[in-house]
Amino acid sequence: MVPSSSGQGKRPRTTPLSPAIADGTDHLSSLPVEMLEEILRRLLLDDAVRTSALAKHWRYRWAECPGLKLVFVAEDPPAAVDAVLAGYTCNVSHAQLEVAPESNGKVDCWIRALAAKGIRYLVLCFIPAFSLILPTVPASLFSCRELTSLLLKSCVFPALPSSSDGFPNLLALQLDDVNFGENGEMTAEALIAMSPLLRSLGIMFPSIDADDEGNYSEWTIRAPNLKILRICAWEDYGWQLDDLPLIEEACIHLESSELPRISYQG
């Protein structure tokens, strides 16, 4: 199953793989390499990995197939995720991780493995624990410098390391039910500003800590290449919009009965 920002689900049931043909001859291997790789890319990840049982020549074919989508669901054992990330020899263009609470401690090493493989499209969806305490995304996320698309769900965004220059290649950023922690508005402002190519920004029901009087510090969304902006929140968290010369679509929805305090400059 592909994790999404809207919920959870079970992986579709798959049928057991059978030998290539009854007499044991591997006729599939005679197909062009490009066709074999396309077959693998069309399979669910677990089925692609299980093709290693078809025949000797298929043992490592999945691991050497470029363009596989690495999609993991919460039910996947952490050891299985470790094995796939260690065994896959190509760069990873697309990875989706649905993380169960008991696997939160593994996320740092998974992100580091993906960063080393040049991850470009990353979905990181945490399944809330019964305690409702959101896990913090490891700061190793900022080592994923090749990211062009990032979706985070149900987590605490990490503080920006002083040495980080953000995501220089990021085109799309989606933050769903993300907590920015103390001084989080400044983290949000810096993150967006350090993504100079950003074209699409979605912030769904964030949480930012107020001061002792219940007020939020003003912070500014500056994104000179932004075309699509969507914000849905319980209240106005103090954002302002500035330097959005290419904006084509903007939707800001507040659940609060009070009118938002939003200003646009420029």
TrEMBL record:
Signal sequence interval, chain numbering: none
Pfam family, one: LRR_At5g56370
Domain F-box: 25-59
Coiled-coil intervals, chain numbering: none
Region (Disordered): 1-23
Keyword Lipoprotein among UniProt keywords: no
InterPro entries, alphabetized: F-box-like_dom_sf, F-box_dom, LRR_dom_sf, LRR_FXL15/At3g58940/PEG3-like
Positions of transmembrane segments: 121-142
Superkingdom of the organism of origin: Eukaryota
Keyword ATP-binding set for record: no
Keywords from the named record: Membrane, Transmembrane, Transmembrane helix
Listed name of the protein: F-box domain-containing protein
Organism: Panicum hallii
